[in-house]
Automatic annotation (TrEMBL), chain A:
<keyword id="KW-0812">Transmembrane</keyword>
<keyword id="KW-0472">Membrane</keyword>
<feature type="transmembrane region" description="Helical">
    <location>
        <begin position="254"/>
        <end position="275"/>
    </location>
</feature>
<dbReference type="GO" id="GO:0022857">
    <property type="term" value="F:transmembrane transporter activity"/>
</dbReference>
<feature type="transmembrane region" description="Helical">
    <location>
        <begin position="93"/>
        <end position="113"/>
    </location>
</feature>
<dbReference type="InterPro" id="IPR001851">
    <property type="entry name" value="ABC_transp_permease"/>
</dbReference>
<feature type="transmembrane region" description="Helical">
    <location>
        <begin position="39"/>
        <end position="56"/>
    </location>
</feature>
TrEMBL record, chain B:
<keyword id="KW-0472">Membrane</keyword>
<dbReference type="GO" id="GO:0015658">
    <property type="term" value="F:branched-chain amino acid transmembrane transporter activity"/>
</dbReference>
<dbReference type="InterPro" id="IPR043428">
    <property type="entry name" value="LivM-like"/>
</dbReference>
<dbReference type="InterPro" id="IPR001851">
    <property type="entry name" value="ABC_transp_permease"/>
</dbReference>
<feature type="transmembrane region" description="Helical">
    <location>
        <begin position="49"/>
        <end position="70"/>
    </location>
</feature>
<dbReference type="GO" id="GO:0005886">
    <property type="term" value="C:plasma membrane"/>
</dbReference>
<feature type="transmembrane region" description="Helical">
    <location>
        <begin position="21"/>
        <end position="43"/>
    </location>
</feature>
TrEMBL record, chain C:
<keyword id="KW-0732">Signal</keyword>
<comment type="similarity">
    <text>Belongs to the leucine-binding protein family.</text>
</comment>
<keyword id="KW-0029">Amino-acid transport</keyword>
<protein>
    <submittedName>
        <fullName>ABC transporter substrate-binding protein</fullName>
    </submittedName>
</protein>
<dbReference type="Pfam" id="PF13458">
    <property type="entry name" value="Peripla_BP_6"/>
</dbReference>
<feature type="signal peptide">
    <location>
        <begin position="1"/>
        <end position="32"/>
    </location>
</feature>
<keyword id="KW-0813">Transport</keyword>
Length: 286, 344, 402
């Protein structure tokens, strides 16, 4: 059982990191970024290319995955989402746009990166035994880094000027603009921050998992589950949602027949949302 | 949703903007003539194009349902799940009990609608992205259910070698002859009939009092309920109609392909049903048809690009949204604003 | 006259030596007069793009080799081989439309599709139009009468599984076996068949209900439970290439010390890249591209594929058998088969060709009478091999039952 709990901790931390990026974009733009999983996948490949193909250090690749995928997000906001959002009669169109982007990025990645799954050399070797449970050192490094990143992000959003402006924009765009905040710059930056986090989580997790071009859609669906559980658009909710899903998955696999685990998770989520439509932490809106 | 609630237009103008009913009927006849006469005359010998049009017609039939849920302001990603339910109902009844396809077709729709009503009643309380994502969960749950209960669905084995539709006769009079192996025209006509019936019913619904109520739900549910509209009842009815379309469409595809697997309808199908509505234009009953036509034909035309087919296809889709964010029909129909809520 | 004689003698040799040697004999003397259009229908985009994509690429590279050698001789004509790849997106609707597309372009011979549901949907078109296809899917109703147009292009999991398990029992003393698979139609089916096969051999199946969702990144939770049942051997049934490496790595990190295997073709380099040394000893059934057993011709094909697509994928060594035997059979059945697949089907039972890919040569023929009641399977050799530092090391070569 220790192993199961440790598994839940690892899965939960990685999920929380994945969920944060999608929830940032949702909170400031009200866009459900269906391309989140694809951006995660690209982040993984960026690290792979810097680390394995160009032979540069893993950590350098990780920084680049944040920057490159973040810039990609800024470009998406400036050239795709902004012009469309200005002209649509129905906001749902942005969802469609994100889906189109997802398919586009995935098929482009297939052409550029090929069909094989990729991995990087281990960032740490060895295995730690803990009360009879096994925890590879690589995983410890990854979850510590992930936890630090989550903490850094929370601090950034909570205590810096930009972070406060982002939060203000999530609550009320017009009022924020009246305060003299440059919304154009801010929303592009927020979008880039969200996608950059997707790239960063993909880049970090490639160290212990692997990446291939088709991984995106499944990641996106799981990310949706997490933010639904936690409450869409609330940072703490995303983290909580990630941990809840990680816990449900680990414990579910341990106690239930494997094939039923996700069916039951889906049913739990559906029932839970019926009772509590805004997730655990969500505020009512819309 | 957020900004779109500009001015709820439910204060019911008395002068109904009922541009004479002749125009839509004429358009319907035109589509019918193009589909039933022109296409078979021109492409009748080409099985490939007939199949493309058959699939297009059936897919747009399913998408009409999604369109209706859009009309009440919900993003419905459960359509593939209910299509899968319909496909399994037909497959199980036909293969195990030997029930005629012609009974299974409407029955599949009815079962899907019934389940849709049961699930929809609580779920429809959700709005916006929450509804979109919960319906996405429903589609996944349907696939997993089909996999997990092999006693009923044969699970991963799939139900294969379904018979083709037999003849439909009434009082000894053959109305529809049995489908022959390899004949494409029967399925082509069946899909076309479904599509036209589906379109016709949608149009009637949209122009009726109920249609106006649906639109008022999209604009503002609270206001609608304050006007004495039983909001919960109307949105469940809309969702059930939508599920009926899905179930019938699923039954059609199970028979066309003569098999059903848990993977026959997946999340991606749900997404595409939605995309067809968007691309055509959400303000127009005929939107899903236009969207499916344009998208499917262009995918086939892009085949020449081989490995680049999907990249170019999705690139064009993004471009299409950039240039026509309100759908293709919004550009064609420059004349004025789309119809607003008419009457209640 | 001389030209014709040359061509006829070349034809005879082609029939005897198979397409490879035959094409060499043509050299420059023959020129292709007509085009033989052959199709590849499979999933070439989305999460499973690896399957159909590699199939299409394999076929194109092999066709390029035929064409560079002047084309293939069928009857007294030579044909350039043109491969038309159609992406079915893994969608049964797309498979049916794609099959119709190929038929409308006059294609009579098709490779693919790659999954049960797409192959079953394409079957309706194949049977109705007398088109031959070679699915890489294991659903038995594709190959059993009354179906007659589909030929299984590879070794089915239920055929190779027991062969591996038996070898493990005899050589590794395996007694307890566990199965784990993705929660999806094709893998679950292969798991059920594998589990039944293992029970029939007298193995104790300690776990065969555990599945993971498509797109799982962390396999610790699911494997914790599987390893908890203390198996000697874990089978990854119908595992997608993208999951093999992570699964092996996770199992080893959880302290599993037994053996592991899969029945499907996998690329050893990709596995090694993800799982590192943990992948050593992993058993897979695969193509015939292992250095120890491959022929010079296979080396040439690998070079060609690498030149065309940038990187070799070991699964291509499996997919190349389909086009090879298809063309060889067409050459043996004669030009009538180009128009009428009944002629092709009639030739299946007696056909014996040459396997150009193995050092030791051997026959290429159609088998499957035991499993399907008719000759509807390509006799791909069952090459069972183990990963060693990113390469395959052959363990043994098995044969399919007639």
């Amino acid at each position: 059982m220790t192993q199961v709990m440790l598994n839940a901790l690892v899965v939960g931390t990685t999920y929380a990191l994945i969920a944060l990026g999608i929830t940032i974009i949702f909170s400031i733009m009200k866009v459900v970024n269906f391309a989140h999983g694809q951006l995660y996948m690209i982040g993984g490949f960026v690290v792979y290319y810097f680390n394995v193909v160009f032979g540069l250090p893993f950590w350098f690749g990780l920084v680049m995955s944040f920057l490159i995928v973040g810039l990609l997000g800024v470009a998406m906001e400036l050239f795709l989402f902004r012009p469309v959002m200005l002209r649509v009669k129905r906001e749902e169109v942005t969802m469609l746009l994100a889906m189109g982007t997802a398919v586009f990025l995935e098929s482009l990645a297939l052409l550029v990166f090929g069909e094989k799954q990729r991995g990087v050399p281990p960032i740490a070797t060895g295995i730690v035994e803990l009360f009879g449970a096994r925890l590879p050192t690589g995983r410890i490094v990854v979850i510590v880094v992930a936890a630090m990143l989550i903490a850094a992000l929370m601090a950034f959003i909570g205590y810096t000027k930009t972070g406060r402006a982002l939060r203000a924009m999530a609550q009320d765009r017009e009022a924020t603009a009246l305060q003299g905040v440059n919304l154009k710059w801010l929303s592009a930056m927020g979008f880039g921050l969200g996608t950059g986090l997707a790239g960063l989580s993909g880049g970090l997790l490639v160290a212990i998992f692997a990446v291939h071009t088709g991984a995106g859609t499944a990641i996106s669906i799981k990310a949706f589950l997490m933010i639904m559980i936690g409450g869409a658009g609330v940072l703490s909710g995303a983290i909580l949602g990630g941990f809840v899903l990680g816990f449900l998955e680990s414990v579910g696999y341990a106690l239930l027949p494997g094939s039923l685990t996700f069916l039951i998770i889906f049913l739990i989520v559906i029932c839970f949302l019926i009772v509590r439509p805004n997730g655990i932490m969500g505020k009512p809106w819309g | 949703m957020q900004k779109t609630i500009s001015m709820p237009n439910v204060n019911l103008p008395q002068s109904v903007q009922r541009s004479s009913a002749l125009k839509p009927i004429g358009l319907g006849l035109l589509i019918a003539a193009a589909y039933f006469i022109a296409i078979p005359l021109v492409f009748g010998a080409n099985g490939y194009l007939l199949n493309v049009f058959t699939t297009m017609a059936a897919v747009s039939f399913i998408s009409f349902g999604v369109w209706l849920t859009f009309a009440i302001g919900r993003i419905n990603l459960a359509q593939a799940g209910f299509a899968l339910i319909g496909a399994y109902v037909t497959a199980i009844l036909v293969s195990r009990l030997g029930v005629s396809f012609w009974i299974c077709l409407p029955l599949s729709g009815a079962v899907a609608a019934l389940l849709g009503g049961l699930i929809g009643w609580p779920v429809l309380r959700l709005k916006g992205v929450y509804f979109a994502m919960i319906t996405l969960c429903i589609t996944e749950a349907c696939r997993l259910t089909a996999l997990s209960f092999p006693a009923l669905t044969r699970g991963a084995q799939g139900i294969v070698d379904l018979p083709l539709p037999g003849e439909l006769s009434l009082f000894g009079l053959t109305i529809i002859p049995a489908f022959e192996k390899g004949a494409r025209l029967p399925f082509f006509y069946l899909a076309g009939t479904l599509m036209l019936l589906g379109l016709g019913f949608m149009w009637l619904l949209d122009t009726s009092r109920v249609g106006a109520v649906f639109r008022s739900l999209r604009q503002n549910e609270d206001l609608a309920s304050s006007l004495g509209i039983n909001v919960a009842k109307y949105r469940v009815v809309a969702f059930m109609v939508s599920c009926f379309y899905a179930g019938v469409g699923g039954a059609f595809f199970a028979t066309l392909q003569q098999n059903v697997y848990p993977t026959t309808f997946q999340v991606l199908d749900s997404v595409y049903f939605m995309v067809y509505c968007f691309v055509g234009g959400l303000e127009f009953v005929i939107g899903p048809l236009v969207g499916a036509l344009v998208m499917m034909i262009s995918f086939e035309l892009l085949h020449e690009f081989q490995r680049y087919q999907t990249v170019i296809f999705s690139g064009l889709m993004i471009l299409c949204i950039l240039l026509m964010p309100n759908g293709i029909l919004s550009v064609v129909n420059r004349s004025g604003k789309p119809e607003e809520a008419t009457n209640a | 006259m001389i030209l014709r004689q040359q061509r006829q003698s070349a034809l005879r040799r082609a029939l005897i030596l198979g397409a490879a040697a035959g094409a060499l004999a043509f050299g420059t003397s023959a020129y292709a007069e007509e085009t033989l259009k052959i199709g590849a229908l499979g999933v070439m985009s989305g999460p499973f793009a690896g399957w159909g994509g590699v199939m299409c690429q394999t076929f194109k590279s092999r066709a390029g080799m035929w064409n560079d050698d002047g084309g293939v001789a069928i009857g007294d004509k030579t044909y350039k081989v043109e491969v038309v790849c159609v992406d079915d997106k893994g969608d049964p609707k797309g498979a049916q439309t794609g099959a119709e597309k190929l038929v409308s372009e006059g294609v009579k011979y098709i490779q693919g599709p790659n999954t049960d549901s797409t192959a079953e949907s394409a079957k309706t078109v194949m049977e109705a139009n007398g088109t031959i296809n070679m699915p890489y899917a294991f659903s038995k109703s594709l190959y059993k009468a009354p179906a007659s147009q589909s030929i299984l292009g590879m070794v089915a999991s239920y055929q190779v599984g027991p062969v591996i398990y038996k070898w493990l029992m005899e050589n590794k003393g395996v007694k307890k076996i566990a199965f784990v698979s993705e929660n999806n139609a094709d893998p679950i089916k292969q798991r059920d068949e594998g589990s039944a096969g293992a029970k029939a051999l007298g193995l104790e199946v300690v776990s065969d209900q555990e599945t993971y969702e498509s797109g799982t990144t962390d396999f610790f939770p699911i494997l914790t439970k599987v390893i908890g049942t203390a198996p000697d051997h874990i089978v990854l049934s119908g595992v997608s290439p993208s999951d093999v490496g992570p699964l092996i790595k996770a199992a080893r990190e959880l302290g599993f010390t037994g053996t592991m295997s899969t029945e499907t073709g996998q690329d050893p380099k990709a596995i090694y890249e993800v799982a590192g040394d943990a992948s050593n000893g992993f058993i897979a059934a695969g193509g015939a591209s292992t250095e120890a057993i491959r022929s010079d011709f296979m080396v040439k094909f690998i070079e060609r594929y690498t030149k065309d697509w940038g990187e070799w994928n070991d699964v291509a060594g499996l997919y190349v058998y389909g086009p090879e035997i298809m063309i060889q059979t067409l050459q043996s059945a004669g030009p009538k088969a180009l128009e009428d697949t009944e002629v092709f089907k009639a030739a299946l039972t007696g056909f014996v060709g040459k396997n150009p890919f193995l050092k030791d040569g051997g026959e290429l023929k159609y088998v499957g009478r035991t499993d399907y009641g008719q000759a509807r399977q390509v006799s791909v050799p069952i090459v069972v091999q183990a990963v060693e530092n990113g390469e395959y090391k052959p363990l043994f070569v098995g044969k399919l039952p007639d």
